[in-house]
């Protein structure tokens, strides 16, 4: 692989360095020196919750996983978790096989698929959100079978359906980050789950018991105790004021897209697992009007963080480094020698100028 040399303001763990970065598949070195003041090199985005894009749903097999990975790479995402929906066991088995195949033979010029985010089926059937109606009680045997078929890195579950903690113990034994979501749990139940090893919260505020001063719910437990949580920052799932509250309260809060097949596509009807969803403008909804994932991309999430007033270094950290840290990855989400050459180049307004995914150039999207 040829060596790429980029110059600009380079975001390192120690802060901004004006100079040049050399990379092949890995970052080879960063040298201080003269560089453009309006060109910014930051880590490639890491999206730990993405269902699809460009018309593809990752429940539909390896080719669909590859297509969505190519789409999101054009928006600066260089690593992601293919995220399932609540589904019948046979459909989950098929999805795992497709994701595993896509990981074994990845697409060119695409985000690296790091594994699976299992969103359901172990959720509260009364808090489905847009999830298809296939929620089931804890089934450690099924979980072990699915984890053997493809690497599950993150799983969403509702603590109230696991009162004895057996499912959470199984997640931990398998090395899966268990996140609280699609839940009606109380503040006490969420706090107990965190103390027992739950690792964070799935799309904070959405599809969970909300905050009231006499009934603080899952959101209250997150704001009081969580080290990590996801946030869908499209300003539709979460209003700016709520986002600022979460950014102040949760040190490891990181952005996700929760993007579905409709992302990057014209208005129309698409699929989310076995559910039909409709895209109109920047919203995706079920027939009943509920939001059904998003059409957000990570470059837009970064610009939305900037619109909230965050400095670029902090916005980049919330879109890459903190998600990589959540998975325990030392070679993603940071610009250091030896790390994967996953990076994006931004102009002064946070717009993409260039993308490298493991050192390979990706043509950035223009919108």
From TrEMBL:
Gene3D superfamilies: Metal-dependent hydrolases, Urease, subunit C, domain 1
Claim: ATP-binding is one of the keywords in the record: no
Entries under Pfam families matching the protein: Amidohydro_1 (PF01979)
Record domain Amidohydrolase-related: where: 40-348
Keywords on record: Carbohydrate metabolism, Hydrolase, Metal-binding
Presence of keyword Protein transport: no
Family (UniProt): Belongs to the metallo-dependent hydrolases superfamily. NagA family.
PANTHER family in alphabetical order: N-ACETYLGLUCOSAMINE-6-PHOSPHATE DEACETYLASE
Official protein name in the record: Amidohydrolase family protein
Species of the source: Benzoatithermus flavus
């Amino acid at each position: 692989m040829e060596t790429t040399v980029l110059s600009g303001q380079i975001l390192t763990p120690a802060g901004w360095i004006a100079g040049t970065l050399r990379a092949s598949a890995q970052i080879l070195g960063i040298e201080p020196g003269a560089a453009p003041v309006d060109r910014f090199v930051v880590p490639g985005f890491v999206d730990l919750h993405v269902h699809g894009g460009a018309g593809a749903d990752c429940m539909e097999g390896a080719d669909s996983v590859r297509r969505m990975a190519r789409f999101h790479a054009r928006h600066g995402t260089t690593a992601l978790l293919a995220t399932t929906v609540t589904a019948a066991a046979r459909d989950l088995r098929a999805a795992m096989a497709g994701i595993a195949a896509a990981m074994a033979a990845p697409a060119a010029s695409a985000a690296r698929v790091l594994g699976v985010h299992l969103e359901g089926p172990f959720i509260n059937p009364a808090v489905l959100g847009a999830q298809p109606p296939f929620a089931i009680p804890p089934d450690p045997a099924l979980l072990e079978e699915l984890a053997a078929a493809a690497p599950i890195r993150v799983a969403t579950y509702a603590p109230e359906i696991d009162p004895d903690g057996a499912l959470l113990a199984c997640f931990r034994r398998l090395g899966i980050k268990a996140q609280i979501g699609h839940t009606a749990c109380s503040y006490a139940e969420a706090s107990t789950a965190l103390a027992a090893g739950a690792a964070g919260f799935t799309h904070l505020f959405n599809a969970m018991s909300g905050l009231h001063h006499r009934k603080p719910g899952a959101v209250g437990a997150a704001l009081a105790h969580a080290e990590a949580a996801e946030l869908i920052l499209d300003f539709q799932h979460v209003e700016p004021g709520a986002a600022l509250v979460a950014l102040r309260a949760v040190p490891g809060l990181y952005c996700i897209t929760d993007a579905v097949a409709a992302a990057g596509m014209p208005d129309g009807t698409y699929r989310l697992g076995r559910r039909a969803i409709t895209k109109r403008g920047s919203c995706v909804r079920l027939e009943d009007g509920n939001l059904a994932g998003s059409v957000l991309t990570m470059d837009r999430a970064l610009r939305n963080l900037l619109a909230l007033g965050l400095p670029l270094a902090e916005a980049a950290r919330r879109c890459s480094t903190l998600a990589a840290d959540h998975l325990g990855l030392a070679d993603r989400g940071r610009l250091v020698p030896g790390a994967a050459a996953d990076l994006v180049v931004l102009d002064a307004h946070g717009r993409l100028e260039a993308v490298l995914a493991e050192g390979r150039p990706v043509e950035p999207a223009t919108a």
